[in-house]
User: Fold this.
Amino acid sequence: MKATDPRSTNPVFGRDPLPSYLALRKTGELGDRIACARALMASCTLCPRHCGVNRLEGEAGACGAGFLPRVSSYNVHHGEEPPISGSRGSGTIFFSHCPVRCVHCQNYPISHLGHGQTVSFDRLADMMLALQNRGCHNINFVTPTHYTFQLLESVARAARKGLRIPLLSNTSGYESVEVLKLLDGVIDIYLPDLKYGDDRTAGRITGIEDFAPINRRAVREMYRQVGDLAVTEEGIAARGLIIRHLVLPGGLAGSEKVFAFLAGEISPHVHVSLMAQYFPASQAVRNPELNRRITPEEYEEAREQMLAAGLTNCFIQAL
Assistant:
C-alpha cells in the first residue's frame, strides 16, 4: 500500500508524543469512563443494535459476546497503512465476535463464529504491554465496539504497568455516538470502514437497515475527536482519522457518494485508504452481486472518483 500524495506525511508532533489516555488516568476521568461503559452492559447498548441483554451476568449479546473479552489473536502487523505499520509494525489485537453480520465478511470465523480465547482483563492488558515491548508503534484494537468497557478497563490496567504508545480503533464504523464519546481522549487514531454510499445497499448487505446513516454519524464524531491525520517526525501516526473504503463489485459500495460525503462533510484533507482486497467470502459466494473479485477497471474508477472529489491524501493498494 502506498501514499499518493506527499502531504499524507505531515509532521506536526515530536518524536514520542504522549497519548491522551495517560492524562485521563491521572485525573481520574478514565475511571469514570470505565464505570459508564460498564453500566451500559447491564442492558447492553454498547453498539447501535441496543439488544438489551445483561452482559454483566454473562448473557451473550446480539454480537455474540458476553462479559469477558474474547481475543482471536494478537501480533505485530506490518500490512496496515504506512503511518500505522511504520517500520516496527502495528500491535494488533483481534477481538472475536462482531455486532454486524455482513454477507461478505472477510473474517467470518472470527466475527461470526467467535473463534478465539476468552481472556481476563489483566491478560488483555499484558497483551498490550507485550506488543509495546516488541517495539510496535501503536496498539491496534480490531473490531472493539462490543468490548468498549473491557477495552477501557484493560487499558487502565496496562497504563498502570507502563503502557504509553497510541491506541487505535480499527472498526466497521457501526458505532453509537454515545459510546464513542467515552473513547474521546482514549483512542488516538480511528481507522473505521466507510463502505457504503447507498443506504438500501448497505442495509441489504449488512442486514441493518439504518447502517449507513449510523456509520456516517460515527465518522463525524470520530473526526470531531481526533481531526485530520497527524504524524511524528518519523511519519508515524500519532493522532487522527483514516477512512477505509473497500471497493465492491459492480459499484455496490457507492464510492462516488462516499467520497462526496467525506470531502463535503468531514474534510477535504481526510486520509482515505482505498482498499482493493475484496474477495467473495462467507455468504457472498452464493450472492450473484458479490461472488467475484473486483476488476482493475472498477478499482481505477473508484480511484478517479476519489481524486475528482478532491481527496488527495490517499493510500492505494495493488490488486
